[in-house]
Every structure is written in structure tokens, then in C-alpha cells.
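Listing S7. Sequence submitted for prediction.
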Amino acid sequence: MYVLNLGGALCGVPSDLAKEEDRIDAMRRALHYLRELTGQNYGYDLEKWHHYLQSSDEFKNDYTNRYGWTAVCVGIKELIADKDHSRRVELAQQTMDEEM
């Protein structure tokens, strides 16, 4: 779920009801969580996080669990292809830079 949030998805919220600022906030929180959990920093690169989590001995069992794996794979592909993804990444990075 955190990787989907990293891409700007708000799990459980229909996309037509999701507010942009909520998406950006979810992205920032997901990045913070993933960095803390894994000790890695792939920024907002969904493909790198996806690859790392599914190939990591420590995290692959949780990440590829049978209950959500198909939805995660589909969601990651959709988020990577989303025309708004790169714009959201820029906004999330700007917001982080302003707070520092």
C-alpha cells in the first residue's frame, strides 16, 4: 500500500474524490515510511521501489502477499503511466524542500 501511496494513490478513496493536496501529503508520508522501514532511498521512483521490495529477502514476502499482489502490480503500472505522476512528484519534492 505504501508504494501505491508513494505514487499518489489514496487507497480507499475514489480518484474523482481525491484532493491533490491529500495525494501529495500521502506521497511524502509514504516516502518517509519506506526510507525508515528499509534504510533505502529511491526517492519517488516507483519502479525502483517496486523492484527493490519484490526482490528483497527481507520485504518480498510481505510485499508480494497473495491478497494484494495483483492489485499492487496493476496499480504501480497505472501510476507510472499516469500523466500527472511526474507533476505530483515535483510538487512533493518542492513541499519537502520548503520545509527544510
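Caption to Listing S7: primary sequence and predicted C-alpha cells for the chain studied. The chain is about 65% helix and 0% strand. Residues 20 and 88 are 8 Å apart (CA to CA).
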